[in-house]
Amino acid sequence: MPKDMSKEKSKEILIGEVMGFYSHVGVIAIQLSAPLKVGDKVHVKGATTDFTQKVDSMQIEHKKVAVAKKGDSVGIKVKDKARKNDKVYKAE
């Protein structure tokens, strides 16, 4: 039976993995497997992590960027604790 295409829009796409969490600044480092831009909504999920938020700012090597591409390592400010190896999805 074919999939209902209207449900396809809410599908989350894996865009990376948390490489580290810096609690003193509330930032996660992500190794991207897909592009990400400021304004996108991300869902961080792991064994004990599960939150969704909008990307308000993003940095590569401590420089603010608006867009990051596949293969980049980026830092984004997060509202909650995350752990190494947590998965990061782009949410709709």
Describe this structure in words.
- 4% of the residues lie in helices and 50% in strands.
- The protein is mostly beta strands and 92 residues long.
- It has one domain: Translation factors (Elongation Factor Tu (Ef-tu), domain 3, Beta Barrel), CATH 2.40.30.10.
- The strands form 2 sheets. Strands 5-4-10-1-2-9-6-7 form an 8-stranded antiparallel β-sheet, with no helix packed on it.
- The longest helix has 4 residues, at 5-8.
- The chain is globular and about 30 Å long.
- The two termini are 25 Å apart.
- The relative contact order is 0.33.
- Residues 4-8 have low confidence and may be disordered.
Q: Report strand %.
A: over 45%
Number of helices: 1
**Tally of separate domains:** 1
Low-confidence stretches: 4-8
